[in-house]
Design brief:
The protein is an alpha+beta fold. The chain has six helices and twelve strands. A five-stranded mixed beta barrel has the order 1-2-3-5-4. It has a five-stranded mixed beta barrel with strand order 7-8-9-11-10. Strand 8 and strand 9 form a beta hairpin. It starts with a helix and ends with a helix.
């Protein structure tokens, strides 16, 4: 067993020397090899509000240069204050001495699902990344079968890809307007997504054209709510209409079938059945 352990240590050491560390490159055996400090280049996708009671905890969602996401956390009042002032959304940073760890999502709430998470500590050094490069336009890991979302913890943020099939009427509430949209995933299954506010108003024509043309959309940072049996747009959601994506071929047969079958009453019945539950 000793040669195997030594090989794991050498491999982990070799990967530490590579700059930057990619989130998907981190392996389980790295957790058991000390030190677990790495350097990364990442964009801050979301900076969540500081924990309101004691101001001693804050979460971030970071993405690397391949579009893979990971949740980052920091704790203690002074450290939270430091990173809250230092890190800004949509800015790219180089970070040294970040601590990777196995995700605690089974025991504590996490905004995104994944095998690993990382911590920003007092030893973490952050500097702006000034080398010009192109961040990927879409997340690396996108859910194509929306039924898989049901297995995730409640209120998890997810990135989805689907075909627009039907638009429900717009409902106006004290929290703003929303609309349920029926989509079809890569497995030909119907699902309802709830879209709020500016994502409706600023994209009104795009939504109509997407329904008429059975267009593909990619939606990032949708939040799952188990009780409502649907996913909702969040304050961090972005919608991409007709994206040029390598997974488009999974939806091409579905698009052709929907365009040939003009009757969309099956989507209306789907919504009615969902309301009766």
């Amino acid at each position: 067993m000793e040669p195997t352990v030594l090989n794991h240590e050498r491999n982990a050491a070799d990967r530490r020397k590579r700059m930057p560390m990619l989130f998907d490159d981190y392996r389980d055996e790295d957790y058991y090899v000390l030190p677990r400090k790495f350097s990364i280049v990442a964009r801050v996708e979301v900076k969540f509000p500081i924990e309101p009671r004691y101001h001693d905890r804050q979460h971030f969602i970071l993405s690397d240069i391949n579009g893979a996401k990971i949740e980052a956390m920091t704790s203690s009042y002074e450290t939270v204050k430091h990173f809250n002032n230092l890190l800004h959304e949509k800015h790219v940073f180089k970070m040294h001495n970040v601590d990777f760890s196995i995700s605690m999502g089974e025991h504590q709430f996490r905004h995104i699902s994944g095998p690993m998470e990382l911590y920003l500590t007092r030893q973490t050094v952050v500097e702006p990344y000034t080398v010009p490069f192109q961040m990927p336009p879409f997340p690396k890991h996108i859910i194509l079968s929306l039924a898989d979302i049901a297995e995730l913890p409640n209120r998890t943020l997810v990135d989805i890809m689907a075909i627009v099939v039907h638009l429900d009427t717009i409902h106006r509430t004290m929290w703003g307007p929303f609309r349920k949209i029926v989509v079809m995933d890569a497995r030909w299954s119907l699902h309802a997504i709830k879209v709020w506010g500016d994502l409706l108003n600023k994209n009104a024509l795009r939504w109509v054209l997407a329904k008429e043309n059975c267009s593909i959309i990619i939606g990032t940072m949708f939040r799952q709510f188990r009780r409502q049996e649907c996913i909702e747009s969040s304050d961090y959601t972005t919608i991409h209409f007709n994206p040029f994506h390598h997974n488009n071929h999974h939806f091409e047969p579905t698009q052709k079938a929907l365009m040939a079958w003009n009757d969309r009453q099956f989507a209306v019945r789907f919504l009615e059945e969902q309301r009766r539950r």
